[in-house]
Amino acid sequence: MAGLLAKERIVARPGFNRWLVPPAALAIHLSIGVAYGFSVFWLPLSRAVGVPCPEGMGFLERMVTAACDWKVSDLGWMYTLFFVFLGSSAAVFGSWLERVGPRKAGVVAAVCWGGGFMISALGVYLHQLWLLWLGSGVIGGCGLGLGYISPVSTLIKWFPDRRGMATGMAIMGFGGGAMIGAPLADILIKRFASPTSVGVWETFVVLGAVYFVAMLCGAFGYRLPPEGWRPAGWTPPAKQGGMITTRNVHVNEAWRTPQFWLLWGLLCLNVSAGIGVIGMASPMIQEVFGGRLIGASALSFAELSEAQRAELATIGAAFAALLSVFNILGRIGWASLSDYLGRKRTYTVFFTLGVVLYAAAPSAGRLGSVALFVAIFCVILTMYGGGFATIPAYLADMFGTKYVGAIHGRLLTAWSTAGVLGPVLVNYIREYQLARGVPNAQAYNLTMYILAGLLVLGLVCNLLVRPVAERHFMREEGTA
Amino acid sequence: MSAPTNAPTPEAPRPSRASWVLVVVAWILVGVPLLWGVYTTLQKAAVLLR
Q1: Cα(A354)–Cα(A455) distance, rounded to whole angstroms?
Q2: Minimal CA–CA distance to A45: which of A115, A128, A113, A116?
Q3: b/e per residue, A312-323, with b = 16+ CB within 10 A?
Q4: Cα distances (angstroms) measured from residue A297 to each of A124, A155, A364, A376
Q5: Half-sphere exposure of A5 (CA within 13 A, CB side)
């Protein structure tokens, strides 16, 4: 079995078709991408017992009690665990991945992600919150990190002529995973629901098995190009303003360069702003436009009845759904475009256009233009997704392809940071505004201007990126 | 998007026709669930257009 997973065993034979590698990567990314859709489990899980926990029950007691229901806020910690363990495992195991190859990493990711679902199923069955966090959050989170970075360097090596498009195809899957997983989970929960069960542990078992198999198929589909392979008729560009190197920087050297930290900063800032918007999209459109969304223009959000608010909530969910589509379109679209524009220019577009759009959003709200408001956020979400999908190619351009998977893994700690920073920032500013007596409809304005400020900082980081200094490159070249 | 032909080494054969069949099958396996997900999501988002 170990031999079957060995790096040496997966070097492609002559005649191998490189277009088989992106679907293998997609199989893994579509499987782990369901992490974004985990909120579909919160409601049924929060009423699994049918008895609310008494107010003032301590944190540790809530983790082990089987006598009363979990709070949605406690379940929501899963997202924090996902982000933290995704980034940490990618950073820690990135070098190991480069050493053992993508297939072994993909298989370990499948075991962690699928196994995490099984442990979570046990946690739900026994009603132990800590098991749920350990299974999906910690062990599953490690599977997320390994699965996410597993195809990156392989794809870049197979598609040196279209690095952005290749990684964009895989990372698009991470955005699309929730689109498949969330409705599928919803169907399964309804199918398994019974008088004695809310249907979640059974759903976890089925999903765990399905994702395990899908990820194994992906991992076994990985092939590495032979040393020195390049697409027929393609020659590496001799010099493109020095921003694309043909040499390599070791992973342990890369993080000592200013370029690494500038890219870390721009990813963190771009993601913080985007996550902030995703988290508040649904309440924002409801509170900004209030009755206008349901043909009662004269009524603000606070003046609406319960039934009208329920109608608005459906529209809020529709807005969030639309944004998720633009998120994945941005991943493949911007990443592919970056092959022609260049990575630095692409991020310059993200940040400059982003600043304009974030700053314009409050005006669209004041004008009462729902269409303009929606359009602004759709474009913003393409750039959020595009930021994720373009960064591996940016890293390969700067540091070479040899260690790009491991370097990308370390850079993903920026995502973990943003996963905490973005929502905290947005929620804190909103609460602060409301406490000062700002009306609901205007409570997001300051947030938008602050997020635009984050993007200005991101733009500065991007503009400061220069070619890596000569001393950081490896002496012995072994470019794949 | 056009797919540049690839050759593992300068002398190696180009991908066979059969390999392109495999490519199509692999893309269908991942593409169909993804398209179903996008379709389901767009259906949900259609409320915005009413």
Answers
A1: 7
A2: A128
A3: bebbbbbbbbbb
A4: 44, 51, 15, 21
A5: 17
B36: chain A residues, CB-CB within 8 Å: 180
The candidate with the shortest Cα–Cα distance to A164, out of A402, A388, A335, A360, is A335
pLDDT digits (tens, 9 = 90+) for A65-94: 898 999 888 888 888 889 899 999 999 999
pLDDT in tens, A202-254: 999 999 999 999 999 999 999 999 988 888 888 877 665 578 888 899 999 99
Residue with tokens 């924090």: A80
**Contact assessment for residue A159 and residue A166, using Cβ atoms and an 8 Å cutoff:** yes
pTM confidence score: 0.90
Rg (alpha carbons) of chain B, rounded to whole number: 18
- 3-state secondary structure labels for all residues of A185-230: HHHHHHHHCECCECCHHHHHHHHHHHHHHHHHHHHHHCCECCCCCC
Cite the beta strand spans of A310-408 per DSSP E: none
What is the number of alpha carbons within 13 Å of residue A403 lying toward its C-beta?
Answer: 23
pLDDT in tens, A377-386: 999 999 999 9
Measured between CA atoms, the residue of chain A closest to residue B23 is: A20
**Residue A397 and residue A244 in contact, taking contact as beta carbons nearer than 8 Å:** yes
Q: Under DSSP, is residue A69 helix (H, G, I), strand (E, B) or coil?
A: strand
Asked if A177 and A32 touch (Cβ cutoff 8 Å), the reply is yes
ipTM at complex level: 0.88
Question: What is the Cα–Cα distance from A170 to A155, expressed in whole angstroms?
Answer: 9
From the list A317, A182, A108, the residue with the least C-alpha distance to B38 is: A182
User: What DSSP string runs through A424-472?
Assistant: HHHHHHHHHHHHTT--GGGTTHHHHHHHHHHHHHHHHHHHH--PPPGGG
Residues of A in contact with B5 (CB under 8 A): 231-233
Most B-contacting residue of A17, A40, A213 (CB-CB within 10 A), to test interface: A17
